[in-house]
Amino acid sequence: MKRKILSLAAISIAAALYAGANDPVLMTVDGKEVHVSEFEYLYNKNNTQQMQSQSLDEYLGMFINYKLKVADALHEGLDRTPEFTSEYESFVRDLSKPYFRDDSVAEKLVRQAYSHFTEDVLASHIMLPLQQENIAKLDSIKAAIASGATSFEDAARQYSADRYSAQQGGLMGYVVPGRFPWTFEEAAYQTPAGSISEVVNSGMGYHLIRVEKRTPAQGEVEAEHILLMTRGLDESQAAAKKALADSIYKVAKGGADFGELARRFSEDPGSAQKGGKLGWFGRGAMVAEFDSASFALKDGAISKPVKTAFGWHIIHRTNHRGIPSLDDAREGIEAKIASDERGILPEKAVLARLRKENNAVISQGALDQLRAVIDANNGVCDSTVLSRIVQMNPVVATYNGGEIHATDAIARVPDIQLPVNPMASITAATGDLLDDILVENERQRLATENAEFRNLLNEYHDGILLYEVSNRKVWDKAASDREGLEKFFRAHSADYKWESPKFKSYIIFASNDTTLSAALDFADSLSTDDPTEFVRKMRERFNREIKIERVVAARGENPITDYLGFGAERPADGTNSRWKYYAAYKGRIINAPEEAADVRGAALTDYQTALDKEWVKELHKKYKVKVNKKVFKNLQ
Question: pLDDT at residue 211 above 90?
């Protein structure tokens, strides 16, 4: 290619280089320009998150310190680590997703799907398996039906792979929006009543759809039922079930509790224990006979026994409601769209726009040249053919400012795919590579021209670096610098006071008295004063036979330390407690902290603050900061 694809990480450079007439440079930090828009964005965001807002003067100092830390991270190369690159590129892709989705197309898809909610479509179909020759077979069947040589019902019984509906002449019931594959649903709703659709590929099979009738949607009903199964029974057994169903119906009509009857008699395992409750359902959700009976009832009415393929049903309709509003249905519709072939259409619309705006063209002539070379080798793309293609290396696509050569596209094809279907793979790779380049260039354009996008990028880019460099210079350093923390504590010990004495000790727990005694004896033999080393050696010697804790606790903070240190009664053992034997080791009452470990949380926080202040002083000496006072004054 004559033009390289820009890496996602390079987008931050493009954003940093942007300087529009309405976005002057506010300052430079280590020679890097910072524009007014970035400062204002972060200032406003900071103030919305604070209990008390800061003035511009107050925030300016904090902002400079922030930028100095980022400069230090850049000098240490933290923006070039694989971890940073991966995290930042992932963020750029996620942030840019809304810009590569045509919301008008997405909304059109939602409204198109919602239009099906307003109408009930009763349909029949003939289905054949997904084999190419079945398209022609269905065309022939349709022609035979049109000529009167056969009826739709007879053809369905003879040919349809859907044996359940075939037994009923292809009648499948109402097409429920969102329940069938979209291509099937859309074909059913686009076919006039009494007409037969063209051949439809639902992804599950090829279909001819005949629409029996179209009526205004009746919404949904709520019902409960009692089912007496007859499937697999002989004639006398089925008759007995019908007699029982008639008896239950009379009892239910007489005012008996329907839910109790369902729990007692219903043989539907899914609903019997719930009192027969089926919840809300629309037309087509149930088998045809059940569906018709449910929607024919009035609220509160109970049907006579209804026969289906499952058995005899007694239906109690409890409520009904109209179709949901678009707002109520939107979430479900959008989820369905995202899960099928429509989900990529909003993105495809943007890609089509980018191709048009960038005069992008895929050269069919160049692809035909490649096809001729491969066909001359009996359709096999082996090393000889690849060598020939490399020599030719035609331009397979062009766009404003760039070209894609055949070798660029082939490099995108997995080795396993190239021998199987070379031209399809190369053609697809060409289109994918072209789209990737256009999307990448569009991301760069966004970073330079869209202030919101640019500021979010800058914030995340610098935020990752700030976190990592602060970890190294302050947080992790303080946590691991035991000697430095102790030195800091000694220098500031007067800052750490207690309101009351505390019991300081190791507490050794064991599951039996013998192990506890052995642990105490071993502890006496250790010469180390290092708490970490002491605990390590104890655990090394006794493994899981003991548990050891270092405690500093005032009276009333812990029942065990109250017992061991302050003379309180021994607390009752827990029922399942393994550690019923315990003792204090080197326990004593102290009036003030003796070492940093006694106030580790507070001391560590203060030490981190001190390290941060010292670091900022060094940064001001190390890197030059120049504020454009005139530009800053215009902000006030």
Answer: yes
